[in-house]
Amino acid sequence: MSDENGIAADRAGEADAQRWxxxxxxxxxxxxxxxxxxxxxxxxxxxxxxxxxxxxIDLLKNPxxxxxxxxxxxxxxxxxxxxxxxxxxxxxxxxERLVVGxxxxxxx
Amino acid sequence: xxxxxxxxxxxxxxxxxxxxxxxxxxxxxxAAVHDRLREPEExxxxxxxxxxxxxxxxxxGEDEIYAVQRYAAVYRExxxxxxxxxxxxxxxxxxxxxxxxQFLEWAETDLEQMQEKGQFHFLPEDEQRIFAxxxxxxxATGEPCDFEYTMHRxxxxxxxxxxxxxxxxxxxxxxxxxxxxxxVTEHRAVKEELRRKAEQLEEVDRRKDExxxxxxxxxxxxxxxxxxxxxxxxxxxxxxxxFRKASQPMLNQMNHLRRLVDDLLDIxxxxxxxxxxxxxxxxxxxxxxxxxxxxxAALEAEPKRLVLSLPQEPVFLEADPVRIEQVFANLLSNALxxxxxxxxxxxxxxxxxxxxxxxxxxxxxxxxxxxLATVFDMFVRSDQALDRAQGGLGIGLSIVRNLVEMHGGExxxxxxGPGKGSDFVVRLPISARKPEQSPPPEEERASAxxxxxxRVLMAEDSKELADVLEMVLESWGYEVLVTHDGPSTLEAxxxxxxDVLLLDVGxxxxxxxxxxxxxxxxxxxxxxxxxxTGYGQQMDRARSSxxxxxxxxxxxxxxxxxxxxxxxxxxxx
Lengths: 108, 573
Prior knowledge:
The structure holds two protein chains of two kinds.
Chain A: H1 2-15, E1 20-26, H2 31-47, E2 52-58, E3 73-74, E4 76-81, E5 86-89, H3 95-101
Parallel strand pairs in A: 1-2
Antiparallel strand pairs in A: 1-4, 4-5
Chain B: H1 2-48, E1 54-59, E2 62-67, H2 72-82, E3 87-91, E4 96-99, H3 101-106, H4 111-117, H5 125-141, E5 145-152, E6 158-169, E7 175-183, H6 185-235, H7 240-272, E8 280-283, H8 284-294, H9 296-301, E9 305-309, E10 316-319, H10 321-337, E11 344-352, E12 355-362, H11 369-372, H12 396-406, E13 410-414, E14 422-429, E15 455-459, H13 463-475, E16 479-483, H14 486-496, E17 500-504, H15 512-521, E18 528-533, H16 538-547, E19 551-554, H17 559-567
Parallel strand pairs in B: 9-11, 15-16, 15-17, 17-18, 18-19
Antiparallel strand pairs in B: 1-2, 3-4, 3-7, 5-6, 6-7, 8-10, 11-12, 12-14, 13-14
Helix pairs in contact in B: 6-7, 7-12, 8-10, 10-12, 14-15
């Protein structure tokens, strides 16, 4: 586990220089999806300003797109880049969970 | 030995190595399992913490999005339980997704049929087409839909359904149509009733305006007669012949005016529902004879024929004699008005099965079929006037109908048309009570008072009325004192101890009731107290009686009645 922590720390360092490619899976403009989008934007502006892209995928319009990233619950955030891929489920209301989930700080 | 030991040690080492490898492999597997479990755990956490509001569900190989909305089901139940026909939902293309089952039951259909055959398939085809077109228009423009249609059910009953729908978005933002189906049958019935009532009111209002115009006209003629008569009396030297010629028409017109005012007051009481019946055991024959007597003057003015046919056995009614007499008097004067000078009127009464039917038939101008239905309505007058002007406000028959109905009876009319005469039929219930001996006549106390010595104090705030009445009373031989307000009346009463006090109740300073109370409270000989007022209802009579009045006369006081009352006063001091 200690190894992983080390790697994660390194990756966080790399992330500073890398572009973030994010996908937000939503179902129309439901309250949680809208909240997730707003929370994500705020978070990115704070931590990776100017070097992120968010693709919003509406599964109501294209339910078949759920397969690719094996989406089960909506909203779900998928970070495609930097690798490894990360998935965070829910409305992204807890910044702490985002920081950890997106490897910006070592996991516990 | 040493070899054996070495071999054993190698084995152990190998085994140890194998175990170590196995352990590492297991740890890797564990880590992988842990990693793979992280996502489901995360999903469960997010769901439990309410951060998720939709799930992807695979159904028949395809992914579908299921919205998770906490109160949706509760809302729907609430709406469907509380509305008679509940809600419907359709997608943005108009395909029905949901229709409350109450509605489906009502239209004797199901959702599949509605989806297949169209949501108006239970309506006649032409209506289906119209509503389908309107629905398409809504779908194309997004305008709210607002349909009302009548649903005919198998049993023959029908309901009026109002469908209202708007284009909206479901909670997930997808456009859709949501609407309600309401049973507005009762609502429409009430609305129709209101519309009908409004029409009736308009009609009544129109008739009221006509009535007022008519009333002006009706008042003008008697006033003209009185006006000219008075001029004649003023200008001539009043020889007895001129006096008689001038005064008789004036008296006739005066009586006509009194009747008009009585009718007006009656109709106002009837329309306010404040008329009071004082029912007694009365005999039909007496009532009819009294009614004939009341129109005798008009009957004798022309060579008309009146034929009366009553049952052999006396017929008794539980009725207010004054009112029931008024019914027949009105029917008779109506018949007199609309028959020619040489016409004939027949009154025929027949008793049968606990009720009596009285026909008042004439061979006069008759009634047009289109007027028959409304002759009993207020302010309706016959348009077919005779060549001479006929008085009447068009309220007499309305009074008749109301009074007859108040007595539990009914009145109908029949006429074969203009020129064919009319037949008014009054049906009244016969009293079940055994006929009694004729009621004891009211105590007649016509005393032979020496009226020339009786002192009358008259309080009247209208000076002209006071002057005229004073002259009348003096002409009868009474000694008359006149006052015009409450306090001076009280003073005069104490100073002069009159035998009779004629009190206008609307006196200034101290009203007549109060004067009466104070006079009654005063020690000493008590005068006869007579109220003279414009108010003649039961309540007014009760009030004057409570104040201590002995008699209650309604203006203009009937002269004969006043004379009788005064005649009852004993000798003066």
